[in-house]
Amino acid sequence: MKKDFKPYYAVIFTSTQKEHIEGYAEMANQMEALAKTQDGFLGMDSARNEVGITVSYWESLEAIKNWKQHTDHLVAQQKGRQDWYSWYNVKICKVERVYEFNL
Amino acid sequence: MKKDFKPYYAVIFTSTQKEHIEGYAEMANQMEALAKTQDGFLGMDSARNEVGITVSYWESLEAIKNWKQHTDHLVAQQKGRQDWYSWYNVKICKVERVYEFNL
């Protein structure tokens, strides 16, 4: 680990969806765009096959809390539980070490 | 957070692949099966679209280190860098809080 490594946070959002998810893609795009404008947002990655995984990265726990409580995001969360997700799991994690390979 | 929550660890493996990835699926299946037999392994989730995300969960940093250094896994890592991945990033994280939604 580099001596100057500054820990940051990851939110691992794992989910399975219902069969019919009308309106989901539009909302997901809106939420991604909105997340990117939040203080302390560092980045995100998403992929979905049988299970969907979205990992977002944040400077602090406070930034995660603020995003979780953002009014528009609360509406999206409510819609998600009501209409789109059959299950989801959220893990708040502290990123302690990173390494990377590049061609 | 529940008072009896015991922190554990997540390895977030994010990657992009080359165009031709002969032998990859077989090796990925082998490595998943092998990981599941390791001491301290708790579970894993994978999905891939433009980017691939595999998150594996472990009881301890020692379990992660042992898996990283497993002989068969070292061979797979070498093949991965040589043949399959154009980029990957590994983040070692401490899972500090978890919440879940179920229909």
Automatic annotation (TrEMBL), chains A, B:
Domain of life assignment: Bacteria
InterPro entries the UniProt entry points to: ABM_dom, Dimeric_a/b-barrel, Jasmonate_Hydroxylase-like
PANTHER family: ABM DOMAIN-CONTAINING PROTEIN, BLL5343 PROTEIN
Organism ancestry: Bacteria, Pseudomonadati, Bacteroidota, Flavobacteriia, Flavobacteriales
GO molecular function annotations of the record: monooxygenase activity
Domain ABM: start-end pairs: 7-78
Name of this protein: Antibiotic biosynthesis monooxygenase
Keywords: Monooxygenase, Oxidoreductase
Keyword Manganese listed: no
Keyword flag RNA-binding: no
Residues in the signal sequence: none
Record Gene3D superfamilies: 3.30.70.100
The species this protein was found in: Gaetbulibacter jejuensis
